Amino acid sequence: MTTATTRGAGAQPVVRSLSPEDTKKLLHLVRNSKSIEIKVSVPMTAHQRTALSMGLDPVEAQPRHVYFFDTADQALNRAGLIVRARRIQGGRADTVVKLRPVDPAGIDAELKRSDAFKVEVDAMPDGTFMCSASYKGVATGQEVLDVTQGRKPLRWLFSKEQRAFYDAHAPAGIDMNRLRIQGPILLLKGKYRPKEFERGITAELWLWEDGKHILEISTKCPPTEAFQAAMEFRQYLEEQGVDLGAKQETKTKTAMQKFKADRQSPRRGSKTGKTALKQA
Q1: Alpha-carbon distance values, 111 to 161, 163, 164, 248, 275 (Å)
Q2: Domains and their CATH numbers in the chain
């Protein structure tokens, strides 16, 4: 039986029939995580058909602007560290400092007890799975604008705990205040509970200026329900005509690839990669 190989910032592509080694690793991650997110990306050509089949209503979706922060050469992304802020409809915003991949068994127990700290396993139908650790924070939409428009330093937007988490895991010498703004990306997010599926479903549509878009459908569950939820979710998606064998595209990976491409061939008026963060 074929075993997995390492790819990207710790992602582990595997065949659908996991090897004993990969099954053991996945079970270890599930047992030591707080939650499981099962997700699938839908091919662009099937977005409208899938939305209609699943009853996804874009009018009811919540618009958001998502910003990433990294160095010009994406040193944080290569190290598996994601720094992000999202403006949310209604004047709200949230922030996150995320590290991946991680071994949840090695994370400090006190850190795990924090309500702002999340350890989660992401799993996709192609067998790819990864565990991440995220320190979340809250902000206002205006505070995100103050930072991205250069009126406040980036560290000001994040909590003391988030900054400490960043300092502990960022490559040496990379000051958070010197990170570059990457984005924003417009996304539409909706939550649904279809009659044919007992669990809640989240749909996110990420939209880029060049016409590229990603539709991701996901559901979450506690670790004790992971495998049951995966089977039920797979059955539901297949009944809706979703091609689970299609190439999977993750939102963050695609965003970082497009930021890199934009820097190499900048479009007129693009703000991607703008350095606008004032020093404290």
Answers
A1: 10, 14, 12, 32, 32
A2: 20-264 (2.40.320.10)
Tokens 């400090």 — which residue? Answer: 108
Residue reference for tokens 């505070």: 143
Establish whether the linkage from the previous residue to 101 is cis, with ω within 30° of 0: yes
How far apart are alpha carbons 154 and 280 in whole angstroms? 9
CA distance 155 to 117: 18
* Collapsed DSSP state (helix, strand, coil) of residue 129: strand
Residues 101/10, Cβ–Cβ less than 8 Å: yes
Residue-level pLDDT, tens digit, the chain, 280 residues: 233 333 333 333 333 567 889 889 999 999 999 999 999 999 999 999 999 999 888 889 999 999 999 999 999 999 999 999 999 999 999 999 999 999 999 999 889 899 999 999 999 988 889 999 999 999 999 999 999 999 999 999 999 999 999 999 999 999 999 999 999 999 999 999 888 898 999 999 999 999 999 999 999 999 999 999 999 999 999 999 999 999 999 999 999 999 999 888 755 444 445 554 543 3
Residues pairing with 123 in the sheet: 38, 129
Instruction: Find all residues with CB under 8 Å of 128, minimum gap 6, and list them.
Output: 11, 12, 13, 14, 248
Residue 92 in tokens = 């709200």
Measured CA to CA, the distance from residue 118 to residue 198 in angstroms comes to 24
Quick one: which of 231, 230, 273, 276 has its CA closest to 255?
273
What is the model's pTM? Answer: 0.87
DSSP H stretches of helix in the chain: 20-31, 47-54, 75-78, 109-113, 141-148, 160-169, 226-239, 251-264
Total residue length of the chain: 280
